[in-house]
Amino acid sequence: xxxxILTHALKxxxxxxxxxxxxxxxxxxxxxxxxxxxxxxxxxxxxGHSRIPIYQNSANNLVGLLLVKDLIVLNPADATPVRTILSxxxxxxxxxxxxxxLQKLLQTFKQSNSHMAIVQEVNNEGDSDPFYExxxxxxxxxxxxxxxxxxxxxxxxxxxxxxIIFLFC
Length: 169
Ligand code: ATP
Known about the structure:
Number of strands: 9
Strand content: 25-35%
Shape: globular
Largest sheet: 4 strands, mixed
Structural class: alpha/beta
Bound molecules: adenosine-5'-triphosphate
Strand order of the largest sheet: 1-9-8-7
């Protein structure tokens, strides 16, 4: 009810990104050299997601964002590489940090005109130099669920969306 929304709305801003993100192990991503043939396009469709982060070499190096609606104009027979679409639309993906507040995240979404960000943190374990590690993704919907205090199930969720994890590496 309204009281639930009010109490959540008053508290959401102080919560942190890491409490609402989808962890990297559950993310559907694509490699930049992946060819978008019928098989791959079908698998993307099966995930039900609208935004697919694109990486080069590893998830720690995210180079852009594929919007699934950009695929409508492709001919699967051409097997267009993801890279071609990225260079055409040039959609960037912003980085946020696990301890950022949701208030700050909302500000980032508004300023960047985007609805998804990647969550990275410095990994300084081990002997090598510290590096940025991707630990998850977060979307506007993850914030909205915090504000209203309820899960949102969208049209594609009812198919029983499957996450296809790094399947295309
Ligand atoms: P829509 O088509 O309604 O935008 P969506 O699944 O693409 O749906 P959101 O509605 O923004 O994206 O997010 C719903 C949930 O799915 C969120 O918890 C979000 O973190 C997660 N999510 C979004 N995109 C991906 C993805 N590529 N891989 C894994 N999880 C994702």
